[in-house]
Each structure stands twice: as C-alpha cells, then as structure tokens.
Amino acid sequence: MTTLLQIDSSITGPNSVSRTLTTAIVEKLREANPGLRVIHHDLAAAAPAHVTPANFPSAHPISAAAGDAPEFAAGRAASDAILDEFLGADIVVIGAPMYNFSIPSQLKAWIDRILVPGKTFSYGAEGLKGLAAGKRVIIAVTRGNFYGPGQPTASFEHVETYLRSVFAFVGIPNPEVIIAEGVQLGPDARQTALDKALQQTAGLNAA
C-alpha cells in the first residue's frame, strides 16, 4: 500500500491558499490510487514543540549527549514518531506558506525531527549521502508578493530555496514545487495565483 504523508502548516485555516493546494494535490493522487493511505498532520493545530536536547529524536547525537533521563521519554517518542512517519511515507505533500520571508516555525520544528544523522543523511569518506532517496515530495508554496527570479525581492525568498535544500540534503534533489504568489495583492491577484497553481496541480503526474 502506498502511503502519503500530508503536512499543512498554514495558520489561516479555511482561508489558506496552501491548504487549498495540498487538498487538491492529495485528491489528484487519490483519484489515480483509490487505495492510497493518507496520514495528515495539521501543524497549526498540533505543532511539534521547538527542539531541545530533551526532545530530539532518540537517534540524534544531541540526544545521546544529553542522556536518557526519564522525563525525556515522552518528547523523544513524539519526535521518533515524526521521523518514522517520514521514513515510512512513499509520498510527502507539504503546504508551505511564506511568513516573513521564510517557512512557518511549526514547519521548521517538524523539519528538525527529520534531519537526523544515520537516518536521513550520513557523512562518510565520499562526503554527504542522503538516505531518504526514492520518495516523491510535492510542495505547495504560497507567497503574498512576487519573489521569483528577476523580481526586486527575489533575494528575500527563503521558502522554496530552503525546502529544496532540505530535501536535496536527505537525497531528494528534485521535489515538485507548485507556487501561488501575489496572493496578498488583492482578491483578483489572489484568485489568479490560485487558478494558475491549481492548473499546475491538475497537470501533476498521478503515478
């Protein structure tokens, strides 16, 4: 059975463009695979705690250095569950709105659980090796203004660039990225951005 992990991080609920896009992406993939198993996490409703030595995944060197105090058990178990879900997923769909030029802090806390030496990457004689290769990652990026190449604000963009770096680091160098931008420039601009992004969603390879 194919497993899809859907991660939403927008704090704007039903008004969220990124949630509209992740929903459309999942529906598109479900049409092609009715037996698709979907695990959905709303990070705005239930965000992982910011990382500390007490709640890093058990396999992380920071956890080993901090020891195994009983009060660390619950936090580490929750982090291990996040990491295991990511490792077990065949497809990962992420909604990533731009907040103040970067990703929501809730999404950053989730990412901090999946970047674990020996689990999703390693260093060796040949340098960095990503250990999570083979997954399909689809990211719905939403931006209030225009930050694409050639725009005066292009250097302010730290959502798509950051997430591409994260997934390349763990062995997934070519995530599929759907972008809706200019969504805060008025109702017409928002609808135009959403329509274009939904067209991209409709054109996704369903396999």
UniProtKB/TrEMBL annotation:
What top-level class of enzyme does the UniProt entry assign? oxidoreductase
Answer yes or no on keyword Aminoacyl-tRNA synthetase.
no
Binding residues for FMN:
10, 16-18, 98-101
Q: Which reaction does it catalyse?
A: 2 a quinone + NADH + H(+) = 2 a 1,4-benzosemiquinone + NAD(+); N,N-dimethyl-1,4-phenylenediamine + anthranilate + 2 NAD(+) = 2-(4-dimethylaminophenyl)diazenylbenzoate + 2 NADH + 2 H(+)
Q: Name one GO molecular function term.
A: FMN binding
Output the superkingdom of the source species. Answer: Bacteria
Cofactor note text: Binds 1 FMN per subunit.
- UniProt feature coiled coil, ranges: none
Identify the keywords attached in UniProt to this record, alphabetized. Flavoprotein, FMN, NAD, Oxidoreductase
Cofactor(s), by name = FMN
EC number(s) for this protein? 1.6.5.-, 1.7.1.17
Provide the family line.
Belongs to the azoreductase type 1 family.
Q: Describe the task this protein carries out.
A: Also exhibits azoreductase activity. Catalyzes the reductive cleavage of the azo bond in aromatic azo compounds to the corresponding amines. Quinone reductase that provides resistance to thiol-specific stress caused by electrophilic quinones.
Q: Report what the protein is called.
A: FMN dependent NADH:quinone oxidoreductase
Organism, by scientific name, is Methylovirgula ligni
